[in-house]
Amino acid sequence: MGTSGNLERRTILKAAGASAAALGLAATTGCGGESGSGGAAVTIRYSWWGAEERAKKINQTIALFEKKYPKIKIKTDFQTYQSFWEKFQTQAAGGNPPDVFQNAVTFLRKYDKRGILLDLKSQVQAGNLTLDHFRDGVAKVGEVDGKQLGIPVGSNTMALVIDRKVFQRAGVAPHPGWTWDDYFKALKTVHDRTKVPGDTGYFRIMYLYDLYLRQNGKAFFTKDGLGFDQPDLTEWWTDGYNRVKAGIVTDPKIVAQDDPKSPLSAGHGASEFTWDNFTVRYSSEGNSTYGLAPIPTTDGKHTGQYLASLMLSASSRTSHPKEVAQFIDFMAHDPEAGRIMGYDRGILASSEQYAAYQPSDAVNKEIAQYEEDTAKAGVLGTITPHPSGADTIEAAFLRIGGDLGQGRTKVVDAVKQFFTESEAAFQA
């Protein structure tokens, strides 16, 4: 997920690989069949991460579900991102994960490898869940190695968020098809004319580097490893380090001081790469006007973008796969549930919910328009399912890039350290 996307992730990503050995003890085969409820009322456990506002909305949708399915009761549990994954790992290691839970592409192969995720195709075949009526390409995000391990409830894509007032003062206007050379010239112009760094730290963002690599015929991940080599990363990080030293990119020390607030909304940078649906945070945190701008390109056309997704997954240990599937189907497709959730978890993934919710505020309208324009541009590709260990590698990329920017390590040493840590993460 830009810098702001990593804010909710980065503290847990180190811990996310810590229980790998223990999680292997919980490996099971998928249940996949009918639940043994025999028509009696059943209770399923549903866990997610998020803030109080998300909890309020989800509880409203659960009330609707229980009204439609009076014999299915939902027991809820929500945490912050860090606490969620810490608790989930403990539950999974003990063989007692929640029946259904919020998930993301970074974790699919990791937990499938340990036998924790239910292949939901069995429930699709049983008629308890449908993969129809999703926006183009969204459902594929939850498919790994022929198994449907997650059902998307929201989608997003990478974008560039700019401080419009700063860019206007600098006389810089982002435009579709602009190149990286154009972008870096814009950063320098912004800095020279406003004394504000043009960017908050692009070189530390794994998902942005993935787009850059895709523009150049590679990708950050293959299905079982890294899709680039040490010279590639040396070039990327050398470029970023030099721009920090020139004042064109925000000093990582200032980024750390601003945390958990974004340096963009704190006024310490003029642009920031992030997931498009995260842009609502800047208006609530900052005192300027913020907007979405196109991703820079190598050739003036291909951005390397794809749709990512927040999704719902099921435990392979659930005793109620039918009821879990019915719940997931409701949360992904019910129009009223979509109207309640809005874009809290990203742009609504199913066509029924997308049509049902019409944003009324300017920020969410812009997010929806950005996704529509990106889709119409024909630049969206397919995300590469992340290999097991990707969560640990994302944390390493952010951390080591920050150390590099602060001068704590040299580029050559940072690159070697990253590849060493990545290899260890893949083998865990």
Question: Can you walk me through this structure?
Answer:
The chain is of the alpha+beta class. Helices cover 46% and strands 13% of the residues. A six-stranded mixed β-sheet has the order 2-1-3-10-6-11. Helix 3 (52-68) links the parallel strand 1 (42-49) and strand 2 (72-79). The protein is globular, with a radius of gyration of 21 Å. The chain starts with a helix and ends with a helix. Mean pLDDT is 89; it is low at 1-37.
Notable characteristics:
428 residues; alpha+beta; 6-stranded mixed β-sheet; 3-stranded antiparallel β-sheet; 18 helices; 13% strand; globular; disordered N terminus
Q: What is the CA-atom radius of gyration, in angstroms? A: 21 Å
Q: Main β-sheet, in a few words? A: 6 strands, mixed
Helix/strand order, N-terminal first: HHEHEHEHHEEEEHHHHHEHEEHHEHHHH
**What's the overall geometry?**
globular
Whole-number mean pLDDT: 89
Decide which structural class fits the backbone.
Answer: alpha+beta
Strand portion:
5-15%
The unreliable regions are 1-37
Q: Tally of extended strands? A: 11
Count helical runs.
18
Strand order of the largest sheet: 2-1-3-10-6-11
Q: How far apart, in Å, are the first and last alpha carbons?
A: 23 Å
Helix content: 40-55%
In short:
The chain has 428 residues and is an alpha+beta fold. It has helices spanning 3-16, 20-24, 52-68, 81-93, 108-113, 121-125, 164-170, 180-194, 206-215, 230-245, 252-258, 280-285, 321-333, 335-341, 351-356, 362-376, 390-405, 411-427; strands spanning 42-49, 72-79, 100-104, 143-144, 147-148, 151-156, 158-163, 271-275, 290-293, 308-314, 347-348.
